[in-house]
C-alpha cells in the first residue's frame, strides 16, 4: 500500500546527512566548556604595582572604589593616569574624575578641587557632555567645602543644558536653603529667597510626577520616595495656597509646553500632511546643536569665571516672574 510520504532511506537511520553537517554531535556538546573569568581575576597579579599592565590596574581601581576602599582606588587610578597617553584624552578625563571623587570621599576637598579643575580645563567649551560632567563634579566639591555660591553657579550651568533633571533642581534648592543666613545681592533671591527655594523643590516634584506613570521596576520606589521628601520640604515653607499655585504654574509651564525661548531649542516640529513636506526632526538634535553653538561664547575658564554673574543670569532666566 503506497502512502505517498516520499521518505528517503536516511530518514530511517537515526540522523540524516543534513543533521550531521549542521548540528553539534552529542559528544561534542558534552565536552564543551564555556570560558569563565574567576572572581577578581585581576587581583591575582603578583609583583609591585609598577609592573602590572594598565588594564589590570584599572580593574583593581574600579573594584576598590566599589568596595569603598578609596585610598587603594586613588593609588591605582593615579598609576593608570601616569601611563595613559596625553593624546588619549577620553581615558585621562575618566581618571581625573575618578581621582577627584576618591579624594572627595576621603574628605580631602582641596585635592578633589585640584583634580576637578584640571578635568574642567580639559572640557571642550562647546561639548555639553564634557561641561555637564565637570560642572557637576565641581558643584559637589564646592558643596563639600561649604561654598554654596560656587556650587550653585556650576549647577546653574548644568540646568541650562539639562532643565528637566529633578536631582539638579533639588540640589539648587538646597544651595538656596544654605543661603538663609547670608545677605544676598542676586537680583531676585535677595528679596524673594523663600519663593526661590520653594520654586526649585516644586520644579523637582513636578518633574518626578510627570514621569510617574511611565516609571517601572526598580525606579518606581525611588520616584515615590523622592516625591514624599520633596512634599515635606515644600510644606516647610508654609506658602499661601495662591502663592504655591503660582509657583507650581511657572515651575511646570515649560514642561507641559515647549519653551518659547529660542535658545532652548526644545520646540518640536510636526509633519504637515497638507503641505506635503517630509517630516523634519527639530527635537533633541536641534536643541543640542543650538546649545553647543551658544556655549561657544560662554566663558567657562577660571580666568573669566564669575559665579555671581552666572547666578544672576540663571535667576533672570527662571525667576523673573516673581518680580513682574
From TrEMBL:
User: Which domain of life does this protein belong to?
Assistant: Eukaryota
Q: Where is this region: Disordered?
A: 1-24, 261-280
- Per its UniProt record, what InterPro entries does this chain match? DUF5588, TPR-like_helical_dom_sf
PANTHER family per the UniProt record, alphabetical: ZINC FINGERS AND HOMEOBOXES PROTEIN 1, ISOFORM 2
Name listed for the protein in its UniProt record: Uncharacterized protein
Which species is this record about? Tigriopus californicus (Marine copepod)
Amino acid at each position: 500500500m503506497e502512502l505517498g510520504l516520499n521518505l528517503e532511506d536516511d530518514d530511517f537511520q537515526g540522523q540524516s546527512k543534513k543533521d550531521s553537517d549542521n548540528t553539534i554531535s552529542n559528544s561534542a556538546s558534552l565536552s564543551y566548556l564555556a570560558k569563565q573569568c574567576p572572581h577578581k581575576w585581576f587581583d591575582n597579579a603578583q609583583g609591585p604595582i609598577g609592573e602590572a599592565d594598565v588594564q589590570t590596574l584599572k580593574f583593581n581601581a574600579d573594584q576598590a572604589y566599589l568596595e569603598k576602599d578609596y585610598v587603594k582606588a586613588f593609588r591605582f587610578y593615579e598609576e593608570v593616569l601616569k601611563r595613559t597617553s596625553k593624546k588619549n584624552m577620553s581615558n585621562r578625563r575618566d581618571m581625573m574624575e575618578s581621582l577627584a571623587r576618591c579624594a572627595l570621599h576621603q574628605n580631602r576637598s582641596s585635592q578633589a578641587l585640584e583634580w576637578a579643575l584640571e578635568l574642567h580645563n580639559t572640557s571642550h567649551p562647546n561639548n555639553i557632555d564634557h561641561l555637564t560632567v565637570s560642572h557637576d563634579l565641581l558643584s559637589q566639591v564646592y558643596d563639600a567645602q561649604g561654598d554654596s555660591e560656587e556650587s550653585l553657579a556650576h549647577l546653574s550651568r548644568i540646568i541650562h543644558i539639562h532643565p528637566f533633571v529633578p536631582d539638579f533642581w533639588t540640589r539648587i534648592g538646597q544651595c538656596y536653603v544654605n543661603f538663609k543666613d547670608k545677605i544676598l545681592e542676586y537680583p531676585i533671591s535677595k528679596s524673594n529667597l523663600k519663593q526661590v527655594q520653594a520654586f526649585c523643590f516644586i520644579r523637582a516634584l513636578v518633574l518626578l510626577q510627570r514621569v510617574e506613570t511611565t516609571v517601572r521596576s526598580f525606579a518606581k520606589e525611588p520616584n515615590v520616595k523622592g516625591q514624599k521628601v520633596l512634599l515635606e520640604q515644600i510644606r516647610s515653607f508654609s506658602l499661601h495656597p495662591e502663592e504655591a499655585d503660582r509657583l507650581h504654574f511657572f515651575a511646570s509651564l515649560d514642561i507641559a509646553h515647549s519653551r518659547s525661548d529660542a535658545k532652548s531649542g526644545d520646540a518640536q516640529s510636526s509633519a504637515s500632511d497638507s503641505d506635503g513636506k517630509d517630516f523634519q526632526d527639530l527635537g533633541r538634535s536641534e536643541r543640542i546643536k543650538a546649545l553647543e553653538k551658544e556655549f561657544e561664547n560662554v566663558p567657562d575658564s577660571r580666568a573669566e569665571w564669575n559665579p555671581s554673574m552666572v547666578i544672576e543670569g540663571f535667576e533672570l532666566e527662571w525667576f523673573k516672574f516673581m518680580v513682574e
